[in-house]
Amino acid sequence: MIKHPPSSIAFRGLMAAVCLALLAGCLPPRHNSPETPPPAAPADLTATPGNAVVTLAWTASTVATGYNVKRATTSGGPYTQIAQLAVATSNGYTDSSVTNGTAYYYVVSALNAAGESANSAQASATPTATGVPPAAPTNLAATPGDTQVSLTWSASSGATSYNVKRSATSGGPYTQLAAPTSPTYVDSSVTNGTAYYYVVSALNAAGESANSAQASATPTATGVPPAAPTNLAATPGDTQVSLTWSASSGATSYNVKRSGTSGGPYTQIAASTSTSYTDTALTNGTTYYYVVSAVNSAGASANSAQVVAVPNVSNPPPPTFGTWINVTPAGVDLTDNLCGNGGTQSVQADPSNPTNLYAEFNCQGIWKSTDYGATWTGPINTGKNAARVSDCVGGITVSPSGTAVPPTIYQGCIQGSGEGFWRSVDGGVNWTKYSVAPGGTRQDYYAPVVDPYDDNHLIMAGHEHDSIVESIDSGRRWTAVPLNIGMLTNGRTGFVFFINTGNAVTTRGTWLWIGEQNGGLNGTWRTADGGTTWVQVDTNEHPLGAAQIYQPDSNGVVFMAGSNSILGQGVLRSADYGQTWTHVGLTNNESVVFGTSKNVYAMFGFAAGPGATFDSSFELAAQPGNGTWAAPGTPAGLTQGAAQISGVNDGSNNVLVGAMWNSGLWRYIEP
Fold first, then answer.
1. Could you give the 3-state DSSP secondary structure of residue 125?
2. pTM above 0.85?
3. N or C: which end of the chain has fewer CB within 10 A?
């Protein structure tokens, strides 16, 4: 049998199968490649503020191909995406769509083909103009605890940290304690029962702000009521009794109690936060008995020792009176019509050196006395800007610095080539002018009033324009103070004064404003918050160009004078720091009130020019000024009354020196 070879087709198929089988056995097994995971959240996000920019930086995330930048104006979001970045710019971003002074909050997420990471940790920044220090912190509060005081304040825009400062004396000097970066601090280096006074300043790269308003606290042991008040004293007056006492360590307030029977029972009539109280609307001739207890969060103390008082009007005027003597320097011209020649409208004693007094004569410069006002030399403004300071209708203020060096003197010039605000730091020789920015083209302001607890804190009122301005840096810079619509005078002049509450913090914002005579339409207004809100307390108004109030101490009594009061024209007296008023004295129209340790004085005056004559309505009463007033009269040559009266003690007598407008300077020695 003959065998035939396999066909070529079958052979080729067999060989292909063999080769495929061999190939499969020679190659390694195949596996799928893993997918790339989403990136991790970016780390180390930082936000650096600049002038209208915030610069962001972070640590790049592994396998990220891009980033989402997100922003919010509220901490914690919600966030809005503001940019998406490629990996080439993955470690930073500059946000230029920001506003200086606004806080911004940022997060960043990472991206790749697999998705988006979680957000990074938040970073925040507040952009601010380069070279501008932050504003002083506000709303500083000091809360006492057991051997500690907790401080809080409102954050200052643009601040990166704060300096916390403390003093054992109200008003300083202060010593820095700490530099926190947040608006809180707990001072644990204190002793229970000791009063501490605090201020805080804000810092950034451009510098440090002014100090905040002062806050004080007295730490005390938890759960321990304060001790009973001591040294309670009662001073009777007309239908009232004024009470004062020594502070109790750790007390936050005091309960004032009264009885018609010695030893009680007592009825609480007030809760005072200060160490004084005036009980009004009493019956003259009736005997009243008083005690006071101290209060804190732990409870009330025992009652103080009892005091007794009988209100009465039996407070006769002084039996003898002094005489006004003309001490106008011979070199002063009160005859020629120099820039209207109102004469002199301000005379000021140097609190640090009572032998020295200063006065300004319209268009005739600044004059000085070194013998309690008996003789005068001048003008003393012989240095820088001497001519312009002399060419001025205005007044001066001597700062109550309490130092022995030449005092700082301020001038408010309302007319003349020297119109504007001026400052001398060498006792009136050289002068520097500072612009009152809120006044714009109106730079005519009366001489400022100085905060009794802060020499750098000034307020002053515009001359014949509706303006009050405030400075916290001794007059270098000024800000406008809001006015109530009822205070708008339409071209008249208001005068503004600090009311000393006995506390540096509350005095800072407690002011009294008296409008110019306008039929009672403007009247007298009071603020306790630096002008944020005003309350009208009377319709009393001052004569043209002159007003002066008088506070004998910081226990609540304030005197003012004028006309158009609903209580009658003349002298008004308050026993509660100017909140309510009673009429005392005669029914003369008056402009200034001044007092000594013995008496209270009032006088009428206004800018009348050379040759004018009017009754100065000079009157006085024995302290405390709520008894009978007398009018002893004035010499014939004193033809115009006071614009301002200042007083000193020469070691033997109280001496009054009055700036009597065009009648010049006059001196009165109290018997």
1. strand
2. no
3. N
Nearest to 462 by CA among 429, 427, 436, 426: 436
pLDDT tens-place string over residues 421-439: 999 999 999 999 999 999 9
d(CA 156, CA 136): 7
Contact 203, 156 (CB under 8 A): no
Cα–Cα distance measured from residue 645 to residue 627, given in angstroms and rounded to the nearest whole number: 22
Residue appearing with tokens 């230029």 = 96
- Token pair recorded at residue 140: 């500083």
Here the tokens at position 341 are 């020649």
Gap between the Cα atoms of 39 and 109, Å rounded: 9
3-state secondary structure 261-292: CCCCCCEEEEEECCCEEEECCCCCCCCEEEEE
Structure tokens that stand for 330 in this block? 């011979």
Q: What is the pLDDT of residues 150-185, one digit of tens each?
A: 999 999 988 999 999 999 999 999 999 999 999 999
Taking the C-alpha atoms of 127, 131, 132 and 133 in order, what is their torsion angle to the nearest 10 degrees?
Answer: 100
Is the pLDDT at 33 greater than 80, yes or no?
Answer: no
What is residue 596's three-state secondary structure?
coil
pLDDT tens profile 445-470: 999 999 999 999 999 999 999 999 99
Would you state the structure tokens that stand for residue 573, as one six-digit string?
A: 């007296």
